[in-house]
């Protein structure tokens, strides 16, 4: 097989294959996977991970080894089972179906915003990513939510117990379809927890600017650009599972790709 052919073959699964119907929701998916045909199959290599996983990490270890130098996936530091139950499809629609949410375009600049009822987003726009769509034609629910309106939900969330001196926290809550994601960008440090589904992350340190088009989706980048990268210039990557929290340091480039319909929340340290 020619160099690069295998990655392209694996990526073709995303764009050409459709999974058989998954029924009215597999156990533990919160009802988010019930939409069935059209969800992209997971990459065969999704278990490859270059980001360290840590359970029972102490604050001093966090500051010494990760806070300012490299990402890490945290396990078992908080119990968000109550929050997770409240984030099921049925319960979120019952509580916030009529609430207006603000969608952003899924490109690096996210310069277009669209406001619509949460129920309309879930029932009509929450579908697998079209691999031919550009970022400015892909609407993504992440951030821009009205904190006061969603406060009854956020009060049940337990963020990671680590902070950085001189920073305050802000939440961004999101729900997105399989194959969707945000292309490479950077900002201040933060944590991102997957509540339902799986989210793949691609990360570069601040001194390594990734090769990407700001208006092409992560799925397009993974299909077209990633296979051409030499192993030495590929990003750190890992699939974050439900219940895990990824920490990313200040100014680290990162792009995300939801492998399933995913519910997630980030805690930004600003």
Question: Which labels suit this protein?
Answer:
alpha+beta; nine-stranded mixed beta sheet; three-stranded antiparallel beta sheet; 7 helices; 19% helix
Radius of gyration: 18 Å
Low-confidence stretches: 5-27, 35-44
Number of separate strands: 12
Query: What is the H/E string?
Result: HEHEHHEEHEHEEEHEEEE
What can you tell me about this protein's structure?
The protein has 270 residues and is an alpha+beta fold. It is 19% helix and 25% strand. It has helices at 5-16, 59-65, 81-86, 89-96, 118-125, 151-154, 218-224, and strands at residues 53-55, 72-75, 100-105, 113-117, 139-142, 169-176, 190-196, 198-204, 236-241, 245-248, 253-258, 262-269.
What is the strand and helix layout of this fold?
Elements: H1 5-16, E1 53-55, H2 59-65, E2 72-75, H3 81-86, H4 89-96, E3 100-105, E4 113-117, H5 118-125, E5 139-142, H6 151-154, E6 169-176, E7 190-196, E8 198-204, H7 218-224, E9 236-241, E10 245-248, E11 253-258, E12 262-269
Parallel strand pairs: 1-2
Antiparallel strand pairs: 2-10, 3-4, 3-5, 5-6, 6-12, 7-10, 7-12, 8-9, 8-11
Kindly summarize this structure in a few lines.
This protein has 270 residues and is α+β, with helices and mostly antiparallel strands.
């Amino acid at each position: 097989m020619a160099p690069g052919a295998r990655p392209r073959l694996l990526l073709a699964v995303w764009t050409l294959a459709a999974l058989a119907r998954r029924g009215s929701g597999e156990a533990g998916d919160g009802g988010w996977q019930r939409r069935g045909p059209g969800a992209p199959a997971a990459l065969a290599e999704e278990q490859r991970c270059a980001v360290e996983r840590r359970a029972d990490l102490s604050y001093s270890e966090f500051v010494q080894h990760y806070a300012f130098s490299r990402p890490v996936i945290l396990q078992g530091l908080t119990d968000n089972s109550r929050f997770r139950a409240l984030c099921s499809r049925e319960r979120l629609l019952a509580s916030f179906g009529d609430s207006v949410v603000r969608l952003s375009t899924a490109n690096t600049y996210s310069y277009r915003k669209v406001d619509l009822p949460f129920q309309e987003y879930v029932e009509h726009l929450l579908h697998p990513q079209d691999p031919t769509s550009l970022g400015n034609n892909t609407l993504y629910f992440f951030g821009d939510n009205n904190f006061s309106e969603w406060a009854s939900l956020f009060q049940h969330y337990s963020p990671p117990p680590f902070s950085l001196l001189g920073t305050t926290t802000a939440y961004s809550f999101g729900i997105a379809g399989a194959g969707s994601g945000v292309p490479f960008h950077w900002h201040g440090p933060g944590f991102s927890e997957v509540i339902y589904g799986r989210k793949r992350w691609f990360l570069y340190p601040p001194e390594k600017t990734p090769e990407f088009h700001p208006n092409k989706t992560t799925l397009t980048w993974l299909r077209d650009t990633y296979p051409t990268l030499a192993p030495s210039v590929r990003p750190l990557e890992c699939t974050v599972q439900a219940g895990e929290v990824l920490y990313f340091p200040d100014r680290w480039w990162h792009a995300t790709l939801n492998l399933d319909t995913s519910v997630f929340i980030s805690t930004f340290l600003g």
